[in-house]
UniProtKB/TrEMBL annotation:
Pfam family, one: Pro_CA
Similarity comment text for this entry: Belongs to the beta-class carbonic anhydrase family.
Lineage: Bacteria, Bacillati, Actinomycetota, Actinomycetes, Kitasatosporales
The organism's place on the tree of life at top rank: Bacteria
Cited function: Catalyzes the reversible hydration of carbon dioxide to form bicarbonate.
Protein name: Carbonic anhydrase
PROSITE patterns: TAT
InterPro entries, alphabetized: Carbonic_anhydrase, Carbonic_anhydrase_sf, TAT_signal
Low complexity bias (residue ranges): 50-61
Region entry Disordered, spans: 1-30, 50-70
C-alpha cells in the first residue's frame, strides 16, 4: 500500500542485500495449517513428492534450480543486484520455457510481500516464470489463506526458502500506526489489517521514525509466526527450509536482511 516516503533508519554504509545471519527459528504465534486444502495437491507439482525438493534435472529452466536455502538466497540477492544496476535479464520468458511450464512448476522461493504496486517480487529480484511463488497482502498480514499458500509451496513443492518482504513507506503500516494514535476506526476490512499489524508498532519512536521502525518490526513478527508453524518448523530443523525477513528500499531499490 502507498504512503509518504520514509527513509530507512541508520547512517552507516548501505547494507548488502540479505547480509547477516539467517533467522530461521523462534516466534510465539501458532496456527493450524490448512492441510486438508493441500490433500492431493502434489500431483500439481509434476511428480514432486510432498516435502521433497526438485532436482536440477527436473527443472524446465536454463540454469539449475536452487535446491538449498543458501542457494535460493544467493539467487535472489544476485537478481536484486541486477535490478538495482538496471541490468535485468528478465529470465525464463521464452516460448520454450512457457511450453515446459504447462506440465509443472518448480519455484525455488516463496515471497510473502505487500500489495504495494512498487514492490513486485519478480521484478525486484529479476526472476521469471516458474521461479517464485508470491503471496501478497497489505503489510504482509497473515491469515489462514496466506498460511495455507505458504505451506503449499514448502510442503508440496519442496521450496527451500521463504522470504517475508517488507518495504520502505508501507501504507498499511502507516495506517495502523496512525489509527492507534488517533483512536479512529478505519473503514471496513482495512481495520482488520491494522489490528494484525498493531502488535508490531514500535512505541520507542515518534512520527515517521515510528512508522519506519514498525515496518521492520512487522517483518520480524510475521517471520516469527511462520517459523513457529509446526510443519514449517520441522523442515527448518532439518535444514531443508529457511524463513528470512527482508526489506525493500524504494530510494535505492536494495533488498536487505531484517534480523
Amino acid at each position: 500500500m502507498n504512503s509518504h516516503a520514509t527513509a530507512h533508519s541508520g547512517t552507516g554504509p548501505e547494507p548488502h542485500p540479505f547480509a547477516g545471519p539467517w533467522p530461521t527459528t523462534g516466534g510465539t504465534g501458532r496456527r493450524t495449517l490448512l492441510r486438508t486444502a493441500l490433500t492431493g495437491a502434489a500431483a500439481l507439482g509434476a511428480g514432486l513428492a510432498a516435502g521433497t525438493p526438485a532436482t536440477a534435472a527436473s527443472t524446465p529452466h536454463t540454469r539449475p534450480r536452487p535446491g538449498t536455502p543458501r542457494e535460493a538466497l544467493e539467487e535472489l540477492a544476485a537478481g536484486n543486484r541486477r535490478w538495482r544496476a538496471y541490468r535485468e535479464r528478465h529470465p525464463h520468458e521464452t516460448p520454450a520455457v512457457r511450453r515446459t511450464l504447462v506440465t509443472g512448476q518448480h519455484p525455488f522461493a516463496v515471497v510473502l510481500g505487500c500489495i504495494d504496486s512498487r514492490v513486485p517480487p519478480e521484478l525486484v529480484f529479476d526472476q521469471g516464470l516458474g521461479d517464485l511463488m508470491t503471496v501478497r497482502t497489505a503489510g504482509e498480514v497473515l491469515d489462514e489463506a496466506v498460511l495455507g499458500s505458504v505451506a503449499y509451496g514448502v510442503l508440496e513443492l519442496g521450496i527451500p526458502l521463504v522470504v517475508v518482504l517488507g518495504h520502505q513507506s508501507c501504507g498499511a503500516v502507516r495506517a495502523a500506526v496512525e489509527a492507534e494514535r488517533s483512536g479512529e476506526q478505519l473503514p471496513a476490512h482495512i481495520q482488520y489489517l491494522a489490528d494484525r499489524i498493531s502488535p508490531a508498532i514500535d512505541h520507542s519512536k515518534e512520527g515517521d521514525a515510528r512508522i519506519d521502525a514498525t515496518v521492520d518490526a512487522n517483518v520480524r513478527l510475521v517471520r516469527a509466526a511462520l517459523a513457529a508453524e509446526p510443519d514449517l518448523a520441522a523442515r527448518i530443523g532439518t535444514g531443508a527450509l529457511a524463513i528470512v525477513g527482508a526489506r525493500y528500499e524504494l530510494t535505492n531499490q536494495a533488498v536487505h536482511h531484517i534480523g
